[in-house]
Design goal:
This protein is an alpha/beta fold. It folds into two domains: about 280 residues, Aldehyde Dehydrogenase, Chain A, domain 1, CATH 3.40.605; about 190 residues, Aldehyde Dehydrogenase, Chain A, domain 2. The protein contains 15 helices and 22 strands. Strands 14-15-16-13-12-18-19 form a seven-stranded mixed sheet, with helices on both faces. Strands 9-8-7-10-11-21 form a six-stranded mixed sheet, with helices on both faces. The chain starts with a helix and ends with a strand. NADP nicotinamide-adenine-dinucleotide phosphate (NAP) binds next to helix 8 and helix 9.
Length: about 475
């Protein structure tokens, strides 16, 4: 892709705040830089919101709430459906913007756009299925009516790794339920969300329903919104560390809270697994989004009888991947999002090697500009290695071994996290023992990807609480009201 085409792609984005249906500069015209991780060069300057700008956004969301809650469900659903179609029509435009700010190859951006836009289609359909209950009280004297109403204004804080989908998974159900919102995309990747704001406005979303705030003073600008008595819900996707402090802040207003936090996914390969499928699944579970996914397989726990063959085949596949700039043709692996992220990945690999792990492929960062790290497979990794406990968030596959099923499940559960686990086996009785024994919110059996807009996404333990997608997803944005009816 030429530099000229790239510049044109960025120009369709308003690098401003979106508040009350208008694009506006931040207080004092302040901006911060968004860079291209494949070169480290400036892409564009984006509005840098102040505390007062943040307050204006929650003002707008609060002002729009009552009318929006009264808007017919079909109308809310139609806006989502139109936005889904606009995103689908403009996939090339948004894929280029996403790749430029985040680094992943265009095909990965397109996969995220297909996934992320589906939340709008799914919740367009859910908007008209919000229902209640009517029943006779057990003593027959009264009637019990149960109805659902929107929670109210929401704050949505999203990470950089899926700049579209982590937003649409929250915005879709909030629009369907009749909630207004303030969205704060990650500072590293705000352009995709600004683009989406425009699309939703074009699809007919009324002013004030969605407000977008970009800022480099994140904690300072977010905390007053979280403590604002008009806010009713906080939904966050990001690191466990930040999530913990946001839960504390939200205690003051007793907010409804959803937390989609970090992961440390085990990927179990049993001795009876179909190894072709297991290697294929491993590539997907590890390399989707360059390993920068909360669902990324972090620990490959493989039966000792098949560990060598599995590791060798995985290493061959990893070594065959093309590393390069995401906007170039035929690229499988782009740069990591920033220098800090790459240093962390390198540190984890060096630590494992210093403790006895063997590098089958990769194990270092290639020379030259951009935050690249070579796809890596490590074997003989000791359990004391840091990457057994910490989220890698990069293209590194460490292989651990086990001898019996119970030990494998215990190893899989030996982490503070509990987002997702994968298991490959052809034994049906084992399948049930394994999925019942794993302490995670999601399990993939003989498949390396679980994300699906029609299914409830979310974790347990330090991976958080609340579910996004599926029938459960809209419930996060609805309150239940009970009316006792007498006559
Ligand atoms: P992060 O540092 O926690 O940032 C996530 C978001 O929180 C960003 O928008 C960030 O803003 C904001 N933030 C940071 N400090 C804040 C504060 N004090 N108050 C309010 N907001 C604050 O996480 P990340 O590095 O972007 O994302 C990677 C993490 O997300 C990984 O741990 C990954 O597992 C997790 N993740 C989880 C899921 C899931 O569904 N479970 C999905 C994707 C990612 P700035 O960008 O301005 O700092």
């Amino acid at each position: 892709m030429t530099g000229e085409t790239e510049k044109q792609a960025i120009q369709v984005v308003h690098p401003q705040l979106f508040i009350g249906g208008e694009w506006r500069d931040a207080e004092g015209g302040k901006t911060f830089a968004v860079e291209d991780p494949s070169t480290g060069e400036l892409l564009v300057e984006v509005a840098d919101a102040s505390v007062a700008d943040g307050r204006a956004a929650i003002d707008a969301a609060a002002a729009a709430q009552a009318d929006w809650a009264r808007t017919p469900p079909r109308d809310r659903g139609e806006i989502l459906r139109t936005a889904f179609e606009l995103i689908t029509e403009r996939v090339d435009e948004i894929a280029t913007i996403m790749t430029l700010e985040m680094g992943k190859p265009l095909k990965e951006s397109k996969a995220e756009i297909a996934y992320g836009s589906e939340f709008f289609r799914w919740f367009a359909e859910e908007a008209v299925r919000i229902s209640g209950r009517y029943s006779v009280a057990p003593n027959g004297a009264t009637r019990l009516l149960t109805l659902k109403q929107p929670v109210g204004p929401c704050l949505m804080i999203t990470p950089w790794n899926f700049p579209l989908a982590m937003g649409t998974r929250k915005i879709g159900p909030a629009i369907a339920a009749g909630c207004t919102m303030v969205v704060k995309p990650a500072g590293l990747t705000p352009l995709t969300m600004l683009w989406l704001g425009n699309v939703l406005a074009e699809a007919g979303l009324p002013a004030g329903v969605l407000n977008i705030v970009t800022t480099s003073s994140t904690g300072e600008v977010m905390e007053p919104i979280i403590r604002d008595p008009r806010l009713r819900k906080l939904t966050f996707t990001g690191s466990t560390e930040v999530g913990r402090s946001l839960v504390e802040q939200s205690a003051e207003g007793l907010l409804r809270v959803s937390m989609e936090l970090g992961g440390n996914a085990p990927f179990l390969v049993f001795e009876d697994a179909d190894l072709d499928k297991a290697v294929e699944g491993a590539m997907l579970a590890k390399m989707r989004n360059i390993g920068e996914a909360c669902t990324a397989a972090n620990r490959f726990i493989v039966h000792e009888s098949v560990a060598e063959e599995f590791s060798t085949r995985l290493a061959e596949r990893m070594a065959g991947l093309n590393v390069g700039r995401g906007t170039d043709d035929g690229i499988d692996v782009g740069p990591l999002v920033e220098a800090k992220q790459r240093s962390k990945v390198a540190e984890l690999v060096d630590d494992a090697v210093s403790k006895g792990a063997t590098v089958l492929t990769g194990g270092s960062a290639p020379d030259g500009q951009g935050y690249y790290y070579s796809p890596t497979v490590l074997t003989g990794v000791p359990l004391e290695a840091r990457l057994a406990k910490e989220e890698i968030f990069g293209p590194v596959a460490p292989v651990f071994t086990f001898t019996d099923e119970e030990d494998a499940i215990a190893m899989a559960n030996d982490t503070e996290f509990g987002l997702v686990a994968y298991a490959f086996t052809r034994d049906h009785a084992r399948v049930i023992r394994v999925y019942e024994g794993l302490e995670t919110g999601m399990v993939g059996i003989n498949q390396g990807i679980v994300s699906n807009p029609a299914a409830p996404f979310g974790g347990v333990k330090a991976s958080g609480f609340g579910r996004e997608g599926g029938a459960e997803g809209i419930e996060e944005y609805l309150e239940t009201k009970y009316v006792g009816l007498a006559w």
